[in-house]
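Hey, I was hoping to borrow your eyes for a little while. There's a protein on my desk that I can't quite get my head around. The fold is given in discrete form, as structure tokens running alongside the sequence. I'd be grateful if you could look everything over and explain what you see. Here's the protein in full, and shout if anything looks odd to you:
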Amino acid sequence: MAQPETDPIYHTRKMTRELNALIAHLRDDVTKVDEPQFKAMFETAAEVLGGLAKAFGDYEKKNEAAWQR
């Protein structure tokens, strides 16, 4: 059964999928360009987005104090 669009989990999961796709794209592009600054920037961007995806997962699991009521 599909989750309704009014469910916050529907949106966190959708955004997590999008973030993971972007992370994969960034990491793939790191292998295509031979410039250290570019590689560092893209790897940093992937790490930051990974942290955001983790925060969405933490929200879903309510395992961080900030997400508990």
